[in-house]
Amino acid sequence: MGRARRWARSRLAGSGIEADEPVAETLILLISELVTNAVVHTGCPAVLRMLLPGVPEDAPRTVRVEVADTSARPPKQRHADGDDTNGRGLELVSGLADRWGWQPEGAGKSIWCEVDRCDPDAPAVAFDGVS
């Protein structure tokens, strides 16, 4: 998961989203959760994608994160009890992201989330990476 976090931090910084911005910290946490879930539940590497906001003022100011894996099984949000040490990943995603969902992708699926950004000055750039 460290590789996915480093990749995401460098892409966010390259788009003008500074590491100390709250949106960057939220996105890194979301990426970590989604990639961890994909790897833990499939045992295979995941593909991480980010779509960053664009610059005309009318462009969406939303950062979209997608994590594709090889399992066609739908994600299942659980509600962990107080002492449980796992089972909070999608609950955390649901609480931190402005929107999230999933869709079939090839033989597997892609789980996505979106976080709305306050700063309209970031360029529109799409990045693909593998963790």
Describe it for me?
Pfam families: HATPase_c_2. This is Histidine kinase/HSP90-like ATPase domain-containing protein. Keywords: Kinase, Serine/threonine-protein kinase, Transferase. With 131 residues, the protein is α+β, with helices and mostly antiparallel strands. The protein has one domain: 2-Layer Sandwich (Heat Shock Protein 90), CATH 3.30.565.10. The protein is 32% helix and 26% strand. The chain has 3 helices and 5 strands. Strands 3-4-2-1-5 form a 5-stranded antiparallel β-sheet, covered by helices on one side. The radius of gyration is 15 Å and the shape is globular. About 5% of the residues have low confidence.
List the helices and strands and how they pair.
Elements: H1 2-14, H2 22-42, E1 47-51, E2 62-69, H3 89-96, E3 99-105, E4 108-116, E5 126-130
Antiparallel strand pairs: 1-2, 1-5, 2-4, 3-4
Helix pairs in contact: 1-2, 2-3
The total beta strand count reads 5
Shape: globular
Uncertain parts: 119-125
> Can you give the mean pLDDT?
82
The CATH topology is what? Heat Shock Protein 90
Helix share bin: 25-40%
Following the backbone from N to C, one meets helices and strands in this order, namely: HHEEHEEE
- Secondary structural class: alpha+beta
Distance between the termini: 7 Å
Q: In what order do the strands lie side by side in the largest sheet?
A: 3-4-2-1-5
Major sheet summary line: 5 strands, antiparallel
Tally of contiguous helical segments: 3
| Name given to the CATH homologous superfamily | Histidine kinase-like ATPase, C-terminal domain
* Domain module tally: 1
CATH class type: Alpha Beta
Could you tell me the radius of gyration in angstroms? 15 Å
SS strand fraction: 25-35%
Region (Disordered): 69-88
InterPro entries: Anti-sigma-factor_SerPK, HATPase_C_sf, HATPase_dom
Keywords: Kinase, Serine/threonine-protein kinase, Transferase
Domain Histidine kinase/HSP90-like ATPase: 3-111
